[in-house]
Amino acid sequence: MTYQIAIDGPSSSGKSTVAQIIAKRLGITYIDTGAMYRAVTVAVLEEDININNDEEIKKLLNDIEIQFKWVNDQQHIYLGSKDVTEEIRSTEVTSNVSEVSAIKEVRELLVDLQREIASNNSVAMDGRDIGTVVLPNADYKFFFTADARVRAQRRYEENKAQGRLDQTLEELTELIIKRDEYDSNREISPLKKAEDATVIDSTNMTIEEMVESVLSLIKH
Length: 220
Ligand code: DC
Prior knowledge:
50% of the residues lie in helices and 17% in strands. By secondary structure, the chain is of the alpha/beta class. The strands form 2 sheets. The chain has a 5-stranded parallel β-sheet, with helices on both faces. A 3-stranded antiparallel β-sheet has the order 3-4-5, covered by helices on one side. Strand 4 and strand 5 form a beta hairpin. It is globular, with a radius of gyration of 17 Å. Bound molecules: 2'-deoxycytidine-5'-monophosphate (DC).
């Protein structure tokens, strides 16, 4: 029998790192749904789509294909035949992804895809609406939170490690707060804790502590 673990929370709350590690330890599939919204954003920017034009959006969504593939033991995301794993983390994509992910048709397409993957595989899926909308009957639900300043610091370190230093810590903090606000207040599937989710405040936790707090509740 397959089982599902839903992990939601704002950006840099630790959810993706933890979802990835627990999926590996449990031998199940990891799905980064944020990466899917980011891949659609790459397509929107590449094709120079006007996101307020329904027809343009519909046509784009009809034409694109998003897939996860394993490359050298790492999960990569493809837009058609193009590996966009690095591109989806660019500042330009990050600045536009909230708006793209608020489009109804985009969410419908990706939610369908996410449900389909979860129906055939045991998954640890992370995002904003997994426990509330995508997999409301998930066997396990977690909601990660952390202080905005700590999250900005994490993002800063991540960027630094990848040689991306185009934003200061202050700018990142501001952006994170803005994006949280946007993601939490949008009309469709806002970032929200599912009633039955376990909250993990990761502000003062190490990654291993976060992983342990999740794994200690998994009985599969
Ligand atoms: O987790 P992330 O920063 O890669 O997510 C990128 C954006 O995608 C974020 O601004 C919110 C959106 N998103 C969403 O709306 N629903 C999801 N399930 C996952 C991400």
